[in-house]
Specification:
The chain is α+β, with helices and mostly antiparallel strands and about 240 residues long. Helices cover about 40% and strands about 15% of the residues. The chain has 7 helices and 5 strands. Strands 1, 2, 3, 4 and 5 form a 5-stranded antiparallel β-sheet that branches. A hairpin with a 3-residue loop joins strand 2 and strand 3. The longest helix is centred in the last third of the chain and has 20 residues.
Length: about 240
Amino acid sequence: MKIGNYHLARVLRTKITIPILVAASIFAVALISFSPMNASAEYDQFQIPEISGTIAITEPSDDYSAFDTIALSVAMTVSENSVENGKAMWGKLDVVQGFLVYKIGVLANDNTFHKTIIDAGSGEALFVSDGVSKDNWTHSKHSDKESNKKWKDHYADLTPEERELKKQQWGEVKDAFFALSLDERAKMIMHFISMKVQFESVSDEEKETKKQEMKSMMEELLPLSVEEKTKKLRQYVNSF
């Protein structure tokens, strides 16, 4: 399976909770930021030791599809196997220290985030970071106060109880996403990055239409149960 350069744009930057961040990232990557969360934690804060991969890259490129890389789903599998009780939440094909690798974000069930570096040729795990909890996420550019204000402004017409329900529903989107198979999650990630490429080339009117379509999709998805959310997401993946 050939894969382009980016498989998931950076995840929504928020300090509300990591599960909500994950849930929002699944859809906001489609560049449609209708959720109250401003997206993308500073994953590059990790210090990566010297690595040695199998695919040397001498010139940076926007497209590495000519190289014989493993599939994104394979890299996600290796990452999950490298983190106890971990679930791969996003992936990106990139160059690190002159070698083509996958950067995979993994969330453990104790709500700690791990960054893994997987060799794009051999599938070997070249680096697995220690877990970072949301409480130690020091590189966010937005304070808790600012994040909470953004959330409240977005749902200004709701009561505090209704806003809490929205947070719970976003967390359930995360649970539904992780209930999908690795192949399904990888397919969704690749679909969204394809949407991103298309989005950059359309008119402002078409962009607004796509935003509204995604917003409507999420409005329909959020009130459902986790099982119903999972079913909807699976139907969405199968429609690609």
